[in-house]
From TrEMBL:
It comes from Saccharopolyspora spinosa. Residues 63-74 have a biased composition (Basic residues). Residues 92-119 form a coiled coil. Residues 54-76 are annotated as: Disordered. This is C2H2-type domain-containing protein.
Length: 126
């Protein structure tokens, strides 16, 4: 299905050559800013993530920030797993409380045992 921009068919969709070159002199291409050559020879610049286009590539750059926010939103959805971890931690906390209760019972049992030994004249813990 041909892509239509400004009512014209997109002939080529290529990464945009940046006005700056890499330190080693090799050209730099903006992969997220697409150079769109339209049917009829008109050139415009498009976003790699959506249908946004602008005749000025410098205007596409700030637009790309929107998609960065999208990624943050995705990360927020990823918080589902964080919630799961928190739920597990809460469960661990319950287990820890449970363990503490058992520890208290065990310590009480030890004290009771010592008291019984003393009562029957066992002579201390030996
Ligand atoms: Zn976009």
């Amino acid at each position: 299905m041909p892509r239509i921009v400004n009512g014209r068919r997109v002939i080529t969709d290529e990464p945009t050559l940046a006005p700056i070159a890499a330190r080693n002199g090799s050209p730099v291409y903006w992969q997220q800013i697409r150079t769109l050559v339209l049917d009829g020879g008109e050139v415009t610049y498009g976003c790699a993530h959506c249908d946004y286009t602008n005749p000025n590539p410098a205007s596409v750059r700030p637009h790309l920030n929107r998609h960065r926010k999208d990624k943050k939103t995705k990360a927020a959805n990823g918080n589902d797993s964080v919630a799961q971890v928190l739920a597990q931690l809460a469960k661990l906390d319950e287990i820890a409380k449970d363990r503490d209760r058992w520890k208290q019972r065990a310590q009480k049992a030890e004290r009771d045992l010592r008291a019984i030994r003393r009562a029957i004249g066992g002579g201390g813990d030996a």
